[in-house]
Each structure stands twice: as structure tokens, then as C-alpha cells.
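Quick illustration, no need to memorize.
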Amino acid sequence: MHSLETLNHAWFLSINATPDTPRWQIDVAVAIANDVLYLIPALLALLWLFGGRNQRSAAVRACCVAFLALGLNQLIGMVWMHPRPFMIGLGHTFIEHAPDSSFPSDHATLFASVALTFLMAGLWRCGLLVTVAGVAIAWARVRIGVHFPLDMAGAVGVSCVAYGSVAPLWARAGEPLMRVLTALYRKVLSWPIRRGWLAP
């Protein structure tokens, strides 16, 4: 465990920016770390509003996997507190962040959960887009000093566990849930649906 943590620290320092890093590079990393997150709700909304049955099902299933994975993250943080780099005086930090547990990364967990669900549903373009964005946000959050690299690996692991837990439940209850959600959607947004602005 000690050698793994030593490797984690060394890997972090090789990615983490320093005061000598050009300011524009830090600004780009901060923007990626903070703003790419909005890709997920935007993409899920687009898939639901304009997609077909498979796209909508994947979007709802991705939400279920992500919520479960983020809940698991909270449990892990309660059981095992892993300090962030700035909490132990390691490297440099370029944004303010609460001094909570770093492992696993919630940002990376969200992207990994959604990407895995999309890829398993056969939505390759959406899955690859979220994967690339997730890799970028994982790199950026290490770059600006709020996470360790292994926090990202942990996020992928938690996402896999969450997907594996949701899959059998979805096989039993997914179709009834989709019928309820679709009926509710068609009732609430009937006006724009009738005009062809949204998918029925």
C-alpha cells in the first residue's frame, strides 16, 4: 500500500501544474475541470428529447448508474478518508476546494458511469465522446491539484460496480419504468411534441 501511494504521489507531481506553468495552460485546465461537466446533462437531455427508444433507455439507465456510483463514492469517503493533495501540502492547487476525501473522483465517476452505459447500449459515438471528455476532465483535475491519478482509477472501478448492480435490476424493471416516464413526458410536453419540435 505504501509503494502504491508513493507511485500515486509521484504520478500526481508529474501531471500537476506549477507556478512556472504558463497561465493560459492553467486557465484551460481550470475551464475543463469545472465546465466540461455540463456536457452530461446536456447530452442526456438531447437523447431524451430528440432520440429514439434505445437512446432514451440508455439516458435513463445512465442516470441510474451514475446516481448509484456517486452514492457509493459517498460511502467510500465515509469509511476511508483519503486526503486531497493540498491537504498534505503536496504540489500546487489552482482552485478552491472543500477539504473532503479525494477517492474516488465524483467528476470522473459521473463520466465513467455515463460512458460505460452508452457503450454497453451500443451508442458508440456518444460513449466515445463522453469517454474523451472524461479523460480530459480527469487530467485537468489532477493538473490543477485537487485529485490524485488513482482517484480516477477508483472512479472507473466504482462505475463498473454500479453498472453491474443496475444491469439485472434494469432487465426486470427498466421497461415498466420507461413506459411510465415516456407517458409522463408525452403528457407534460404534448404541445411541442404535436408540433414536431420534439420526438414523440
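The chain has a mean pLDDT of 96.
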